[in-house]
Amino acid sequence: MAVPFAPRRVRAFYALLAAALLSGAFAMFGATAFASSTVTVTASADAYVSSTSPTTSFATSDQLRIDGSPTVRTYLRFDLRGLSGSVTSAKLRLYAESPSGIGYRVSKTDGSDWSESTLTWNSKPGVGSSVGDSSTFNANTWTTVDVTSAVSAGGFVDFAVDARNQTAIKFASDDSGPASAGQAGKSHESKRARDDDDEDASNDA
Questions:
Q1: Rounded distance, CA 143 to CA 126, Å?
Q2: Is the peptide bond before 70 cis (omega within 30 degrees of 0)?
Q3: Would you call 13 helix, strand, or coil by DSSP?
Q4: Burial (0-12, 13-18, 19+ Cβ within 10 Å), 14
Q5: Whole-number Å distance between alpha carbons of 42 and 81
Q6: pTM of the model
Q7: Are 100 and 168 a contacting pair, CB within 8 Å?
């Protein structure tokens, strides 16, 4: 019997799953097909900001937070310079430590530069166009948002995560837990990605 995976609060829980269409083509039954691979990319930076503490950095907090009143927002950055080809599908997965009956919203930022260690409400990037919303979820569970429209290979992508109502939501962050838990998180994410692909393939059959 498989042993259930027990998530820990580490950076690996902010994972972008990107399915990249590789450039190597091969002929099959007279048609051109492409090899694809699924890649797990963990966040290279994460932090939240609060409108009630405009000059405070929460970079070392062991949680990420969002709230509608007062406004609390989370920022995530992913380094996709290791990806090549065309990204055909990308999903943002966050591990929620509290429940939500409405979910959260993921948007692109306005492109302004920011640093995890110095990010505050006063220095935060602006919020750009909306990318997608999560569904409702329970506490201590994985959540997923399709962010394909905002992702391309070869650079960085920044996301702003906002609450959709006035209920606070907490997510696991990277500043607590042993390093080995992060490796387990990455392995779990990769397995989840393969499981998703297998399920999609069976549904298409």
A1: 24
A2: yes
A3: helix
A4: buried
A5: 13
A6: 0.73
A7: no
Q: What are phi and psi of 193, to 5 degrees?
A: -65, -45
- Which amino acid would we find at residue 60? T
- The residues, any chain, with a CB within 8 Å of residue 107's CB and separated by 6 or more, are 127, 128, 129, 130, 131, 159, 160, 161, 162
Q: How far apart are CA 187 and CA 53, in angstroms?
A: 36
The rounded distance, in Å, linking the Cα atoms of 151 and 78 is 10
Q: Mind spelling out the 3-state secondary structure of 146-173?
A: ECHHHCCCCCEEEEEEEECCCCCEEEEC
Question: What's the pLDDT tens digit per position in 146-166?
Answer: 999 999 888 999 999 999 999
Q: Would you state the structure tokens that stand for residue 85, as one six-digit string?
A: 């080809």
Distance in angstroms between the alpha carbons of the first and the last residue of the chain: 28
For 88-108, write each residue's pLDDT tens digit. 899 999 999 999 999 999 999
**Alpha carbons 148 and 27: distance in angstroms, whole number:** 27
The answer to whether the CB of 62 falls within 8 A of the CB of 9 is yes
106 vs 17: CA distance, rounded Å? 15
